[in-house]
Specification:
With 73 residues, the protein is mainly beta. It has a domain at 9-44. The protein is built from no helices and four strands. The protein has strands at 9-10, 23-24, 30-33, 40-44. It has a two-stranded parallel ribbon. The protein is elongated and about 55 Å long. The relative contact order is 0.15. The model has no long low-confidence stretch (mean pLDDT 79).
Length: 73
């Protein structure tokens, strides 16, 4: 059995019975390209790790959003 890779990604716009073979109806945390060899190989994305153990904010005043602002002169 040959299973084509869903290289076009997630598609929830059509019924599963008529879904084109390049799409998938259910993908979660998936990466298509192998970063070391640069070839198409379906795999799981690596886990995220904390870069710091410092507490930002407090239990009574937690951080709820962070944004970046650029100034144009």
């Amino acid at each position: 059995m040959i299973l084509p890779l869903p290289y076009r990604g997630l598609n929830k716009g059509v019924a599963v019975s008529i879904m084109p073979s390049q799409y998938s109806s259910n993908m979660n945390n998936v990466r298509l390209r192998d970063v070391l060899e640069g070839r198409a190989r379906l795999g799981q994305r690596p886990a995220l790790v904390k870069w710091s153990t410092d507490q930002i904010g407090s239990a009574t005043q937690p951080v709820v959003g962070i944004t970046a602002v650029a100034a144009v002169e």
